[in-house]
Design goal:
Layout (H helix, E strand, L loop, with lengths): L1 H13 L3 H10 L18 E8 L2 E2 L6 H11 L3 E7 L3 H11 L3 H9 L5 E5 L2 E11 L12 E10 L3 E7 L6 H8 L2 H4 L3 H34 L9 H18 L3 H9 L7 H66 L15 H22 L4
Parallel strand pairs: 3-7
Antiparallel strand pairs: 1-2, 1-3, 4-5, 5-6, 6-7
Helix pairs in contact: 1-2, 1-4, 8-9, 8-11, 9-11, 10-11, 11-12
Length: 375
């Protein structure tokens, strides 16, 4: 029956028409594993639906409802359902099948949530902010450096539902890594949640390394000989993008501490040690972001100081040349008053003497200013 029958069964359970439309769309095309990072959702919110037993991927079930029934009947294994930007209609049947809390469902559909971990009975709802680095040839005042998305996870005793928002943050590599380690995957849905958290935090560290390269480039440009001419908009843009990264990384600290320290029914005690390791990595990312913020503040202050110094040097040069020009201006102004009784007004050598005095005075002022570094 493939994915079309899967969605049709869930639609009947939720009594909504949106999933029927998705099922019809899915029936027209072959089944595709959209969890691979090179693929993207082809009109349906369902990315993948797989069952696992003892850490091993189970055979394809007829549909989602049948997969859940088999898992719950055997009392072993779990279902991993992946979604991408589902609508209210598409998620309604799934929410009813797994008895998800309406508030958590609303958060998963609407997105724009802070990283958090909430418990609704036996179901754990976790929100992660995903980030990716936007490649650019040259950093400008309008360059996008960091792009963010969201990833939600519903974790129960026998299921994991992941909801992804954004065009990045694919969980295909996470799924492949877990399937390559059956011993870890056999620990259940909490192992999947740990793998997701670890993947998200690893992405943070990769993005931070890329942002550091941009900061190093700006720092090099600012402290170059032409540093005063650097566009300050580049520094402000980096600070804005760093703030976007900070909003994704810093709030996740408390949820990870809860997952690593607070006893939870759906989290295996053995997995909590793994969450502590992820929390340590997140702490490193948080510290690096704080250090980058301070460094950018220092770079901005240094740039403003360079601009001030350059302006002062320009003013000194202007003042020095004004002083040099003031000598002939003053002499010519005095002898241009056209009085009849002026000393040496009709002297034969007066013109040459005045020109000589002006030249000597200007030369003396120029050498004095040059010796003092004003010119």
């Amino acid at each position: 029956m493939s994915m079309a029958g899967n969605l049709r069964k869930v639609t009947e359970l939720g009594r909504v028409g949106g999933l029927r439309r998705v099922a019809r769309l899915a029936r027209r095309r072959p089944r595709v594993d959209l969890s691979h990072p090179a693929r993207s959702p082809l009109g349906s919110s369902v990315v993948n639906c797989v069952t696992y037993h003892g850490g091993v991927r189970g055979p394809a079930a007829a549909d989602l409802v049948e997969a859940v029934r088999q898992v719950r009947k055997s009392g072993d294994g779990f279902v991993w359902l992946g979604l991408h930007e589902p609508t209210d209609q598409e998620f309604a049947g799934i929410a009813e099948l797994f008895d998800l809390h309406p508030l958590a469902v609303e958060d998963a559909i609407e997105a724009h949530q802070r990283p958090k971990v909430e418990r609704y009975g036996d179901v754990l709802f976790a929100v992660f902010k995903t980030v990716c680095y936007v490649e650019h040839e040259e950093l400008t005042a309008t360059s996008e450096v960091v792009n963010t998305g969201e990833l939600m996870a519903f974790v129960g005793q026998d299921f994991v539902i992941t909801v992804r928002h954004g065009r990045h943050g694919s969980l295909g590599p996470v799924r492949e890594g877990l399937e390559a380690d059956p011993h870890q995957l056999a620990k259940g849905p909490s192992a999947v949640l740990h793998a997701i958290a670890d993947h998200v935090v690893d992405d943070y560290l990769e993005v931070i390394d890329s942002v550091q390269a941009d900061i190093d480039q700006v720092e090099t440009d600012v402290f170059a000989e032409t540093g005063a001419r650097v566009d300050p908009g580049r520094i402000y843009q980096l600070k804005r993008e760093l703030l976007e990264l900070k909003r994704a990384v810093v709030p996740l600290g408390r949820p990870l501490l809860e997952l690593s320290d607070r006893p939870m029914r759906v989290i295996e005690p053995e997995i909590q040690a793994y969450f502590r390791d992820v929390s340590d990595h997140l702490l490193r990312a948080t510290e690096q972001i704080a250090a980058f913020d301070e460094l950018l503040n220092s770079i901005l202050q240094a740039h403003l100081a360079q601009v001030t110094v350059a302006q002062n040097e320009d003013m000194r040069k202007i003042t020095a040349w004004a002083a040099v020009i003031a000598v002939p201006t003053m002499v010519c102004g005095v002898y241009g008053m056209n009085f009849d009784n002026m000393p040496e007004l009709h002297w034969r050598f007066g013109y040459g003497l005045v020109i000589g005095v002006i030249a000597v005075a200007c030369q003396a002022l120029y050498r004095g200013f040059r010796r003092n570094g004003w010119l």
